[in-house]
Design goal:
The protein folds into 4 domains: 2-185 and 227-284, Bulb-type lectin domain (Agglutinin, subunit A, Orthogonal Prism), CATH 2.90.10; 290-441, no CATH class; 486-596, Phosphorylase Kinase, domain 1 (2-Layer Sandwich); 603-836, Transferase(Phosphotransferase), domain 1. 22% of the residues lie in helices and 27% in strands. It binds 2-acetamido-2-deoxy-beta-D-glucopyranose (9 copies). It is found in: Cell membrane.
């Protein structure tokens, strides 16, 4: 009988007859039996064979999920070749693994504890955390002799410690498997580096540092900007006389999560997505160029904002060691002190670099328990001190100083430390002029007050102007044939039919003649819609394929190269929840985008229509919500580019024949550098009701502004009403305000679309509403990321309570039609009147 069949049996009937819960000297575990974890039975311990392997290993895996996920292996380097393995406790109280036929020989694996032969009253238990512990019980007191958590494999489980024990010398680190079919010790490790005062976690591949995940800054690991505490995980760091350990916890124990170190050195944080029955990746690292250890050489800073030009920049007061290499975009030789700078003269000061991962601390000096002022003075007094930062971000105290070359510094855009780099008077003056840095605190405060007053003044003016503008618009609104929202396009998943094999990455280039003939010379009869960007036409190619052609306005001001680049980028996006661009056409003045055509409707047609909305039952709505979330996540994270859509709304969600949602209209999408998190725009474009407050008011957009729009969309889908509709019966400015009122009164289900009747699962719907409210919170940092949204939607685990949402455009002056400010593909041109308003907000 084949092993795999055997394994199948094992997996199909895990909690069956042969499941024990402890191993004692009299009760060993044979191949074929499994040990289930106490209480909840979340984990199982037994013998298994990895995929494509016949070797037998003793391991621990998740008991209750459909995909075999082994989290720990005992005999990883000494596989058994038979199915006659036995795990037992021997006379010395040790856990030993034998091949049954050779039980007199040396064990294949052993826990190697040394206990006195007197006390053999040992037992081994699998705990619900996935920890397998060997316990010695004597005189009513239990002592843990050995535990699997002390010897991690390639999987970092919640509650597991990574680091070292100062007393016993035990090092706890992750080591990858050799390959997915061989759990043997591989080449990649994730461990705590002990050089220097502050221990730092590193990812290594073949003993070379791959990524410095960093020291603990008091708030997070310095290199893991994505460590958000609130939604799913909590992170802890212990550094005391006993141990140095990094630990994480899943806030809800029912949510299964692991961090997996892959053979290549990538660390992936995964969450089990119960609804879909597979692991979902929340984070991986190294993810960006700048995550790679010393991507730029000494005394430089890796800045992903500068991706288009050059990632590496010298720290203040430094210049490239080799101008030539720098010019050729090779930053490896790093930077040196500027030639005619002499330190230790009067007038020196510090340039503040905000939101950075501070340099490698292995050679830094650390002085805990001093304030930042003392730290500054200490650094200034010491001529060799090149920079300082705080050792504990949460108390803003403690002092780290660097006295030599600074390595592996990078820039983040939303969270990070502040690094103070020492410069001479000249340099200081230069930076002060540029950034206003180095100015006394009093001035800063003044500036802040001034900024706030100006902001409120502008806001007032803007409100008045907007009122005026909307009033005028309303009068003219109906004249404009803005059928933008009824623009239907559909793109088939697979483009194989297209003869595009030569440049599979590049979009198809259509010639003007074929487009002209396909659209019958852009005949008005074929016109599908029009927006600020231009018009959309239906077309039919010679081979019978229907297409939708978006003919961009001629006055776009965009050059051919820019247009080509943009289109090439967009054409690379492939996801079942995104409409796909097929190609483009640019000849003479013409700029056109070609999509597949489908005579189907967009989401607004269904959810906001009295009769149509009953077509969508709850399950379909949930699938739509989930599909949209997946599409946005792809834009934000999964694709190599980071894309902010900026105009998510019901009319931009198209539904295919199976009601699978597809996000369309990337007219306003902004492509970010891989790590850029936030940007500002001078022109605020988008749609009222879906715009996040920071975007509408300050022109600041980030992935979290899309999260906001998604939240609005989610609530609209649940309620079957537009956010901007006003039949809420109560004095609430908009739908999200109304939902919030009901939520606080515990009556959130009142908003559910009446056409759903009672036929919906209350718990799931409430969960959706809660997620929706979390997404529309005022504070950007309180909004979850799209991956967190997906985890929250896909699992039953309890989630955080939302706070009061942002109310925006909270008056009755909405136009009947959604004003859709459309622009060219590069986000540079907004055509309709919103530009008027936004120039006031703009800066
Ligand atoms: C195992 O999964 C089933 C169905 O998904 C669930 O009902 C049960 O509570 C789970 N058991 C454990 C121990 O997680
Ligand atoms: C299993 O076979 C491999 C190779 O044939 C050998 O190296 C290994 O020692 C064997 N394991 C045992 C437990 O006999
Ligand atoms: C183990 O022993 C049993 C009987 O004692 C025998 O049938 C079996 O073939 C042996 N297996 C191996 C791998 O030697
Ligand atoms: C071993 O454990 C059993 C039951 O757990 C207990 O009755 C016995 O006293 C223990 N023996 C020793 C030597 O501790
Ligand atoms: C257990 O208790 C006995 C007497 O009560 C004592 O002699 C023995 O040292 C104790 N063993 C341990 C391990 O504490
Ligand atoms: C743990 O690592 C440290 C430093 O790398 C080393 O000195 C020590 O021997 C290691 N301890 C064990 C038990 O391997
Ligand atoms: C590990 O590293 C060695 C030498 O650096 C290499 O030969 C081997 O292929 C690597 N193994 C894996 C699994 O990458
Ligand atoms: C050296 O200093 C002079 C002025 O003192 C300045 O003009 C020049 O740019 C400096 N050179 C460098 C390489 O910074
Ligand atoms: C950092 O500061 C916080 C708040 O004061 C404190 O709770 C924490 O223990 C400090 N951490 C270290 C490592 O000193």
């Amino acid at each position: 009988m084949s092993y795999s069949f055997f394994l199948l049996l094992l997996l199909l009937y895990p909690p069956c007859c042969n499941s024990l819960d402890t191993i004692t000297p009299h009760q060993p575990l044979n191949d074929g039996d499994v040990l289930l974890s106490k209480d909840r039975g979340a984990f199982a311990l037994g013998f298994f064979s990895p995929a494509n392997s016949k070797s037998r290993y003793l391991g621990i895996w998740f008991n209750n999920i459909s995909q075999q996920t082994v989290v720990w292996v005992a005999n990883r380097d000494t596989p058994l070749n038979t199915t006659s393995g036995v795990l037992s406790i021997n006379n010395h109280g040790n856990l030993v693994l034998h091949d049954h036929n050779n039980s007199f020989l040396k064990p294949v694996w052993s826990s190697h504890v040394s206990v006195s032969t007197m006390s053999t009253n040992a037992s081994a238990k699998l705990l619900d955390t996935g920890n397998f512990v060997l316990i010695q019980s004597s005189n009513n007191s239990d002592k843990v002799l050995w535990q699997s958590f002390d010897y991690p494999g390639n999987t970092y489980l919640p509650y597991m410690k990574l680091g070292f024990d100062r007393k016993t010398g035990l090092n706890r680190s992750l080591t990858s498997w050799k390959s997915p079919s061989d759990p043997g010790t591989g080449n990649a490790t994730y461990k705590m580096d002990r050089t220097g005062f502050l221990p730092q976690l590193f990812l290594y591949a073949n003993n070379a540092p791959l990524m410095r995940v960093g020291p603990w800054t008091g708030l997070r690991l310095a290199g893991a900007a994505e460590m958000t505490q609130d939604f799913i995980f909590s992170f802890f760091f212990i550094d005391d006389s006993n141990e140095v350990s990094s630990i994480y916890r899943v806030n809800d124990p029912n949510l299964l999560s692991i961090s997996l170190l892959e053979e290549t050195g990538y660390l992936r944080r995964l969450v089990w997505q119960g609804r879909e029955g597979k692991w979902f990746e929340l984070w991986n690292g190294p993810r960006e160029e700048c995550d790679h250890y010393r991507r730029c050489g000494s005394n430089s800073i890796c800045n992903p904002y500068h991706e288009e030009t050059f990632l590496c920049q010298c720290l203040p007061g430094f210049e490239p060691k080799s101008e030539r290499e720098w010019y050729l975009k090779d930053g490896s030789s790093g930077c040196v002190r500027k030639a005619n700078v002499s330190t230790c003269r009067s007038g020196e000061g510090f340039v503040e670099l905000e939101l950075v991962k501070a340099p490698d601390t292995s050679k830094a000096s650390v002085n805990l328990g001093v304030s930042m002022e003392e730290c500054r003075d200490m650094c200034l007094r010491d001529c060799s001190c090149a920079a300082y930062t705080s050792a504990n971000q949460s108390s803003n105290s403690g002092c780290i100083t660097w006295h030599g070359d600074m390595e592996d510094t990078r820039k983040f855009s939303q969270v990070g430390q502040t690094l103070f780099v020492r410069v001479d008077a000249l340099e200081l003056a230069k930076y002060a002029k540029h950034n206003g840095h180095g100015s006394p605190i009093g001035k800063k405060k003044m500036a802040a007050i001034l900024a706030v007053s100006i902001f409120f003044f502008l806001f007032l003016v803007a409100t008045i102007v907007m009122y005026w503008f909307l009033k005028v618009r309303k009068q003219f609104g109906r004249r404009r044939n803005n059928k933008h929202s009824s623009f239907r396009i559909h793109v088939e998943e697979n483009l194989q039919n297209f003869d595009n094999s030569k440049h599979s990455d590049l979009p198809l280039l259509f010639d003007l003649a074929s487009i002209t003939s396909a659209t019958e010379r852009f005949s008005p009869a074929n016109k599908l819609g029009q927006g600020g960007f231009g018009s959309v036409y239906k077309g039919c190619l010679i081979n019978g394929r229907e297409i939708a052609v978006k003919r961009l306005s001629k006055n776009s001001g965009q050059g051919t190269e820019e247009f080509k680049n943009e289109v090439t980028l967009l054409a690379k996006l492939q996801h079942r929840n995104l409409v796909r661009l097929l190609g483009c056409c640019f000849e003479k003045e013409e700029r056109m985008l070609v999509y597949e055509y489908l005579p189907n409707k967009s989401l607004d047609f269904f959810i906001f229509d009295e009769t149509q909305r009953s077509i969508l039952n709850w399950d379909q709505r949930f699938e739509i919500i989930f599909g949209i979330a997946r599409g946005i996540l792809y834009l934000h994270q999964d694709s190599r580019l980071k894309i902010i859509h900026r105009d998510l709304k019901a009319s931009n969600i198209l539904l295919d024949a199976t009601m699978n949602p597809k996000i369309s209209d990337f007219g306003m999408a902004k492509i970010f550098g891989e790590d850029q998190i936030q940007a500002r725009t001078r022109r605020v474009v988008g749609t009222y009701g879906y715009m996040s407050p920071e975007y509408a008011m300050e022109g600041q957009y980030s992935t979290k502004s899309d999260v906001f729009s998604f939240g609005v969309l989610l609530l609209e889908i649940v309620a079957g009403k537009r956010n901007t509709d006003h039949d809420h019966g109560r004095s609430s400015p908009n739908l999200i305000g109304y939902v919030w009122i009901l939520w606080t009164e515990g009556k959130a289900l009142d908003i559910v679309d009446s056409s759903l009747g009672q036929s919906y699962p209350c718990a799931t719907v409430l969960r959706c509403i809660q997620v929706g409210l979390l997404c529309v919170q005022e504070n950007v940092n309180n909004r979850p990321s799209m991956s967190e949204v997906i985890v929250m939607l896909g699992n039953e685990a309890p989630i955080r309570q939302p706070q009061k949402p942002a109310f925006l455009f909270n008056d009755s002056r909405e136009p009947e039609q959604e004003p859709s400010a459309a622009i060219m593909e590069d986000g540079s041109l907004s055509v309709n009147g919103i530009t008027t308003t936004s120039t006031i907000f703009g800066r």
